[in-house]
Amino acid sequence: MVERLELPGGGTMNRRRIAMLTALSAVACTALVGLTGSDAGAQETIEVKIATVAPEGTPWEKQLRQVKRYLNEQTGGRVRVKMFMGGSLGGEKALVRRTAQGSIQIFGGSTAALGSLVPELNVIEAPYLFDSAAEADRALDQADVIAKVSQAVEARGFKFGFWAENGFRSWFTREKQIRQPGDLRGLRMRSQEALVHLQTYRALGATPVPIDVTNVLTSLQTGAVDGFDNTPLFAFATSWYQAAQHLNLSEHSYQPGIIVYSKRWFDGLPDDVKTALTSVPRDMVTSGRQNVRRMDPVLIRNLERYGIQVHRPSAAERQAFATAARGVPDQVARKAGSGARALLRALR
Predict the structure, then answer these.
(1) What is the pTM for the complete model shown?
(2) Cα distance from N-terminal residue to C-terminal residue, the chain
(3) How many domains does the chain have?
(4) Is the pLDDT of residue 163 over 90?
């Protein structure tokens, strides 16, 4: 019997429902938002586009709908939001570029995706930087960390909004079970197109193969790659799990989502709209994280019911991987520049 998961606010998600969902990249995660409007006056209607590679029916959509309601309420209905789900406006890297240019006004996705233009953010997803979600939250919510992230994104044409969630990434493989670092040696692993993930795979002896989210399932089914890493929710949302036989719950990289605004667009907004965008309630951040995290145990049990062999590494096994990848955080920071080194120190 496949376990059904009751979602906050009602409704359930079962295997059929989840398998039909399309993907978020990276991040997870995180959701992606797009907004358009005018600064002609405080009373003018601002048309808001929320566009995301996140699928419908997931906690990511739920969080975006919260944003939609919040902006409507805070601006007396002047901000009108229309949501575009499932990557209908492009992949994460394209959306990042368009947000910087101002043709998309709000981006929500993985820090690794944003790292394509803001390289400092790559260090956030460094392997074995955090041992738990609580530890990651404490680090990311520090005023100093938020200040450094805000400074980095503003220098590249963005305005920091708030954190979202994808979660801890783990390894899924088609045929070979992963128990120790040497098991990855020689495997062709789908990698997110991000410096930190490419460096992590290389450190562990695997060959990273950057593939866009929309092409990963086909690449797995045809044997073009041997596996991938991502969160259980992401694997379900994309149906990638259908091409895997093994899951090592390595939880080797924590991937937050991040919401940023186009600075070019933001700077021309009325003051009250700016205030609304930069004053998102804390409980919206907290619920966004919790709604993703509470699904993991059920999804993992369902993976086992679908025949996937799930390995829960011992402390010694986890330490072996951490030791093999120990040089990656500093390597990434050096490549990404002095701002990345300062951010890494603050996160640690």
Answers:
(1) 0.86
(2) 43
(3) 1
(4) yes
